[in-house]
Write a structure and sequence with these properties.
seven-stranded mixed beta sheet
Length: 387
């Protein structure tokens, strides 16, 4: 039997801890300051003290009656719903109705947005009477104490990416043990298929994550294949018509190719989260795949199985095809043309002006990176079909 104390530093908060954590949050100066700057930037500049006082009072009223994780997540679901109404034309999904709401699953998705990927999965699960997911989140995003508290209230568990050497090895084993333990308790879990977002649009599962899943079961002499098949892994494909962070990403990719590196500052991730949540996304589609049945003990082959589902079930948007069309004009040998791909040209034409306007807003040096990140899902899907 696992000693729960070993998970103390990484696990989400429990119901009995919620009221105390919220009590500390609403008087946390950095938290109140961050909310004030976000909600009332102009008023904060003119009357900072009074504005923070009003925000603190509002937070106490809004959060004061919350005493369980479910109540906190119910509030979050309401916020996500408002965000979707403002920033999304249409949210669609399929495959979810084939999943039992009695069984726990590990949802493993491609990773395009820091906050929205797990939020969308949990939102759809919540809306369909499934349990929301516990969320794997890197400690690189939790540099401020109040952020860590908020994430753990929202069922996040911490991945210690900043650890080095033996500490990293032990942390990875603990993470694996926690994921297995959580699934065994009947909880749904979300993990991205790779560390960090697929900024170039090429979704590929990192075999290292597959190996990590095994570490928590090695002491029980369970094979990799058995460990994977006991986790109820459901590959999930998330496709956004537009990435609100596409300009930030194009700039980063340009800097890396031009200068060999890109230096992120302390605010980079916060800015990306904000843009990802609030920015226009067009249409979004999520496809929940079928339970992964590993047929091998090779982590690379298992990763490829996941990729076939994620890429094969990925819904391509007009933005993807229009970017691919422009790249095809520059390089006709890139792949089959749109007629050969049987693309709905009428739908593409209806979106062409919107896409061209967005593309034209980018400076010339960033446009190739813009096209590549949107065209790569088309190229990826073609490759999977060919193989």
């Amino acid at each position: 039997m696992i000693n729960m104390d070993i998970f103390e530093e990484i696990r989400p908060y429990r119901d009995k801890e919620v009221a105390d954590v919220i009590g500390k949050l609403v008087v946390d100066k950095e938290f109140v300051k961050a909310i004030t700057k976000y909600q009332y930037p102009r008023l904060m500049y003119v009357m900072p003290g009074f504005t923070k006082y009003l925000v603190k009072k509002g937070l106490k009223q809004r959060l004061g009656d919350i005493s369980t994780v479910y109540e906190f997540q119910d509030m979050v679901a309401g916020y996500v719903n408002k965000v979707l109404k403002k920033s999304v034309d249409k949210l669609t999904h399929d495959g979810l109705n084939a999943l039992s709401n009695k069984d726990p699953y590990l949802f493993m998705s491609n990773h395009r947005d820091i906050a929205m990927d797990p939020a969308l999965i949990s939102f759809l699960l919540h809306s369909d009477n499934h349990g929301t997911t516990e969320i794997a989140i890197g400690d690189n995003l939790l540099k401020q104490e109040f952020v860590s508290k908020l994430m753990r209230l929202n069922k996040s568990f911490i991945v210690k990416r900043s650890a080095k050497g033996r500490e990293k090895l032990l942390g990875t084993k603990l993470l694996s043990e926690y994921i297995h333990h959580s699934i065994d308790l009947g909880n749904n879990v979300w993990v991205a298929q790779r560390e960090g977002r697929a900024k170039n649009g090429l979704d590929k599962t990192d075999p290292t994550i597959i190996k990590m899943f095994h570490m928590g079961k090695r002491d029980e002499n369970i094979s990799l294949q058995e460990a994977i098949n006991g986790m109820n892994i459901i590959p999930v494909s998330i496709s956004y018509e537009y990435n609100p962070c596409d300009e930030l990403i194009a700039r980063e990719l340009y800097e890396i190719e031009t200068n060999g590196s890109f230096e992120k500052d302390e605010k980079s991730d916060v800015i990306s989260i904000g843009k990802g949540v609030e920015g226009f996304k067009g249409n979004i589609h999520l496809h929940f795949g079928t339970k992964l049945i590993a047929t091998d003990d090779d982590p690379v082959k298992i990763a490829n199985q996941i990729d076939r589902q994620i890429i094969g079930n990925y819904k391509l948007h007009p933005s993807n095809y229009l970017a691919y069309e422009l790249l095809l004009k520059e390089n006709p040998s890139l792949g089959p043309n749109l007629d050969e791909l049987k693309v709905d040209m009428q739908l593409l034409d209806s979106k062409r002006e919107e896409f061209t306007e967005r593309y034209s807003s980018f400076t010339p040096e960033l446009r190739p990176y813009f096209l590549t990140m949107y065209a790569n899902p088309v190229i990826n899907k073609i490759r999977v079909k060919e193989n």
